[in-house]
């Protein structure tokens, strides 16, 4: 009785079905047509052998190519390692072709993948997960900026100071002008008629800040009590009081803003000691003797253009 050994997967690539038996010589046209080429006649053993032989030869060809790669890499594989054969071969090809060269903007090579956005490495690439995280962050930022235009980050009604003699785009001079409530809807919603009601129904007034100093609203603190937001306040100074004592012709004197001068013997000023007629004098208060003066009260300042955001 003839004994047969089982065929292993790897060994099967070293043989082909029907290679030692008779095989039908299929022509290309017949092969493409399939079984229809013989009609209703049952196929012969030789025809079957030829077909299976062709299939095995195709598989054997691919196996030999892969085996050459394995041999070139100096590897030996068993049937249990067949699954990793292609991966190992590709690694060997990469190593042989480009070695351990690191990739750069100018050179192809190996580059590690990072799963973080916080790295400053120049020889690494982002993972797909971090690429998505970055894309999501950009999309969220764009959503926040939707509808924004130049200067739109400032709210309507904001007061700004500029070193130009014209209002920038998106701003108006704070000069008390009368505006339409419908054209400047956002600005009217912000300040209303706080600085003037215009014609009372279709217009309103801008604040007139020309030549004025701003004072921050007291808002209940009590330093500038009773003020309404946007109200105007005139200038004022603290009250100045003083006293002067006269002692006749030679005893009188003045200091600071007070001054005097003798007018001659008139008998209108009496001496404290002898009740004799003293010397008549003119007295005055002149603040310019001790501080700079003008027709108004003001601190040191610089002129800038006040504007309001539309």
From TrEMBL:
A Pfam cross-reference name: Collar
Superkingdom of this protein's organism: Bacteria
InterPro entries cross-referenced by the UniProt entry: Phage_fiber_rpt, Phage_tail_collar_dom, Phage_tail_collar_dom_sf
Residue ranges of coiled coil: none
Domain Phage tail collar, residue spans: 157-214
Gene3D superfamilies in the record: Phage tail collar domain
Protein name listed in UniProt: Phage Tail Collar Domain protein
Source species of the chain: Kingella oralis ATCC 51147
